[in-house]
Amino acid sequence: MLRRRGIPAVIFAGVKFSGHSSLDAHAWVETGREVNDKSSENFGFVKVIRIGTAGTANISQQRE
C-alpha cells in the first residue's frame, strides 16, 4: 500500500528476552527516507528481519 503511494517504508521483525527464559517478538513498519534504528518504541529488540529499502543509503553511510 505504501509503495503504491510512493512512500518509502521498511518492515522489521525483532526479538528480545524478557523475564526468566521468555522471548518477546515484535514487528513494525518505519516510513520515510531515514530509518530510525533507535526508535523508543522498538528499542531493545534485536532486528532479525528487514524487508524494504527505505533509508538503506543512510544506514550504509553511518557504518562507514
Describe the protein's architecture and organization.
The radius of gyration is 13 Å and the shape is elongated. It has 64 residues and is mainly β. The C terminus is likely disordered. 12% of the residues lie in helices and 39% in strands.
Topology overview:
Elements: E1 9-17, E2 23-31, E3 46-52, H1 56-63
Antiparallel strand pairs: 1-2, 1-3
Compact overview of the structure:
The chain is 12% helix and 39% strand.
Give me some keywords for this one:
1 helix, mainly beta, single chain, three-stranded antiparallel beta sheet, 64 residues
**Tell me about the biggest sheet?**
3 strands, antiparallel
> Strand portion, in percent?
35-45%
Report the C-alpha radius of gyration, rounded: 13 Å
Head-to-tail CA distance between termini = 33 Å
Give, in spatial order, the strands making up the sheet with the most strands. Answer: 2-1-3
Helix content: 10-25%
Shape: elongated
- Overall pLDDT score: 75
- The H-and-E topology, N to C, reads as EEEH
Oligomer: single chain
Which secondary-structure class do the elements indicate? mainly beta
